[in-house]
Amino acid sequence: MENLIGKREFLAAGVLGLGLGITGAAFGQPAAAAGSPPPGGRARREIPNRMAKTSVMFKTPQGFPNAIAVAPEGLWIGEQKEGRNAAPGADTREAAWLVDWNGKLLKTVMTESKNTSGMAYGDNCVWMGANAAPEGIFQTDMSSRTVSHRQIPLGPADNGGGCHGLLWNDGKLWIAALRLRGMLRVDPKTWAPEMFIPVALPENRARLHGIAWDNGAIWIVTGNDSKSFAEGKPGLAKYDAATGELLETVEFVPGAADPHGLAMHNGALISCDAGLHPGWPTNDSPTSQTIFRIDLI
């Protein structure tokens, strides 16, 4: 249910895109339609599809890692707590851990985010996407002080919907917005929406998660609706950040780690296997609570 969008919301997103000057390719073409002739008889461009394998790099700090972001010192990891099992009076704040590239813990920042499902690092702050009430994006400084808490734009003032990925690039914040079912760029100072890229993919790729910047393009984690690691079919989709055009898709080889967050480091895609996946038993994946590299093959 978290990834569904109603007809009214979809139409609103379309009006938004036109208002922001997003036309044509910026509204993308569903991968399911690739190669089939649209009205008028002209064949669509075939979308390339590749495979990927994963290699575990290191274990995360104790907890469930559901988001990552690269920083000069290393890698930020966003914690997602298993809130439904929280003991009365337990600390419900979620951590942002800074580790080096061997997994050594360098710093911990505590945030007010809940069910964190995406993070970014920029302007000397961590930005945590809350996927549970009160939802929204929490900006937290290095002393664990909440600088701002704002809802994803273009929704109700008190509930802009859930977030499954965040990305900081060139002073702007990209949000993988579940309610809008796409990637929204905002100005982090004014919170004004500037660009929207709908993500329209077939059912077996419809679950969206982390996002990462790649030389003018954005990768987004995709997946199917599944009940176990054995049924899971993770993937990636790559979009042109200027036009919204779908450039390619990726499927993971059987047995690969379960991707949640996403980041790019030295030309390689990095992800985390949270150990918490909707509909799966806890730690069902054999690489739960790890950071891993994604290699396209």
Secondary structure layout plus pairing:
Layout (H helix, E strand, L loop, with lengths): L6 H13 L29 E11 L5 E7 L2 E6 L14 E6 L5 E7 L4 E7 L2 E6 L5 E6 L4 E5 L12 E7 L2 E6 L4 E5 L6 E6 L8 E8 L2 E7 L11 E6 L5 E7 L9 E4 L2 E6 L16 E7 L1
The main β sheet shows up as: 8 strands, mixed
What is the CATH topology classification name? Lipocalin
Overall shape: it is globular
Number of helices in the DSSP assignment: 1
Order of helices and strands: HEEEEEEEEEEEEEEEEEEEE
Helix content: under 10%
Residue stretches low in confidence (pLDDT < 50, at least 5 long) are: 1-39
CATH class: Mainly Beta
CATH architecture: Beta Barrel
Number of separate domains: 1
Using only C-alpha atoms, the radius of gyration works out to 18 Å
Structural class by helix and strand composition: mainly beta
Question: What is the averaged pLDDT score?
Answer: 87
Summarize this entry quickly.
The chain contains one helix and 20 strands. The protein is mostly beta strands. Strand 14 and strand 15 (217-223) form a beta hairpin.
Describe the model.
The longest helix is centred in the first third of the chain and has 13 residues. It is globular, with a radius of gyration of 18 Å. The N terminus is likely disordered. It contains 1 helix and 20 strands. It is 4% helix and 44% strand. The two termini are 32 Å apart. An 8-stranded mixed sheet has the order 14-15-16-17-1-20-19-18, with no helix packed on it. Strands 2-3-4-5 form a 4-stranded antiparallel sheet, with no helix packed on it. It has a 4-stranded antiparallel sheet with strand order 6-7-8-9, with no helix packed on it. A hairpin with a 2-residue loop joins strand 2 and strand 3. The chain is mainly beta and 297 residues long. The protein has one domain: Lipocalin.
